[in-house]
Protein: UDP-N-acetylmuramate--L-alanine ligase
Amino acid sequence: MSLHFYLLGIGGIGMSALAGLLKARGFQVSGSEGAPPSPPASQVLKRLGLIPFCGWDPERLEKISPDYVVVGNAIRRDHPEVEAARRQGLPLLSLPETLKRFILPGKLPLVVAGTHGKTTTSALLAFVLERLGQEPTFFLGGLLRDRELNFGSGEGPYAVVEGDEYDSAFFEKTPKFWHYRAFSAILTSLEYDHADIYPDLASLEAAFRTFVELLPEEGLLVFWGDADRLVRLAERSRARRVSYGRSPKNTYRLLERTPFPRGQKVRFCGPQGEGTFDLPLYGEHNALNALAVLALLVELGLSPEEVARALGEFCGVLRRQEILYQGRVTVVDDFAHHPTAVRETLLALKEAFSPRRIFLIFEPRTNTSRRRVFLSAYQEVLSLAEAVVLKPPPGLEKVPEAERLDLTALARGLEARGRRVGFLQNGVSDILALEPSPGDLLVFMSSASFGKIYTDLVKALKERGL
Structure:
């Protein structure tokens, strides 16, 4: 009889990937969620044939009697199913500890860490390894578009893991990426985030410092060398160090980007000389993400020509620069929520589409986005759009008032910069009130799905001949 894992909070995107990996290894999997899961996790669970238990029921664990209860990091210690598990003496595990103990043994973990670009870079890395016949195992925070899954269980030597710096569980207040004991890593960036658990940048930087110090001497650290903070961090690692970026001091240099309708051509140089690759993603930040993947894989011994070819075939990730509709107007969905990610994504979309105007539908949903720490930064970066529709996030009232993002103040700051501002309260009509016309670009940005509004908007645009 195989082990049975009960995933408490199975509707999270990371938990859905863990469920897939556990099932692929032959384990039994079940789980619960407070409400029916939303996309994209619900899509993964449906593909897996997993129907989560809806609502919390302490008696359920007595009936199921799993071998392990895996606790999502949003679950509190007083949760009724946690208390039931403890009464029964069931072992509690965090998601990263479960990966470490049951998925990663026998693999060489390649961990992608950083404030920005983790999902896209991890997906690129997993996709290229797969294309090159390496049969990787992978755990991602987004769904690959070609299969609409966020995990893969391969027989090859490498395991690609998106390395989150958020804490692991209420009983394990350590960053997730410490657990994975990376053999090699990509470090894309480091800016302040997760204000709910890191009081300042220094505390966040300390978490990353430990991560790079855990890399083994025989491993490899590929880091963005244009950021002094990352250069200093990299110096703390025993692993071999390779940098990438724009500056001539980097081991792998981004020399030139040439946009084309569905992406860009990237020219670079490295120890092997100059080369190029096509990339079906927009923006300099994604050119750098791809260059990091190329640097890691070439340094691990793969052919630079084969890596470059595979990068050009990349399928993309759902909710990362995802084109939902392209008629006389274009509609794009993106996960960006940190001010830097918002800025870089909007600049990339401007470069790609040369729109007449950008209308941005923005939801500050993450624990940090809902706090006032980014108020002035949001006022600046959201003004890259000509009009902004703000969606009040759920749970905003739970943030202490002194720390809470003031959406009215955000709107006033945008209006002072000459931008039109509205609120998403009545559905698609609030977006149509901006009167989109040919040549406009409508961009959704949130860490969560906007649900039915996508299809409602596309239908309305088609009815208007747009």
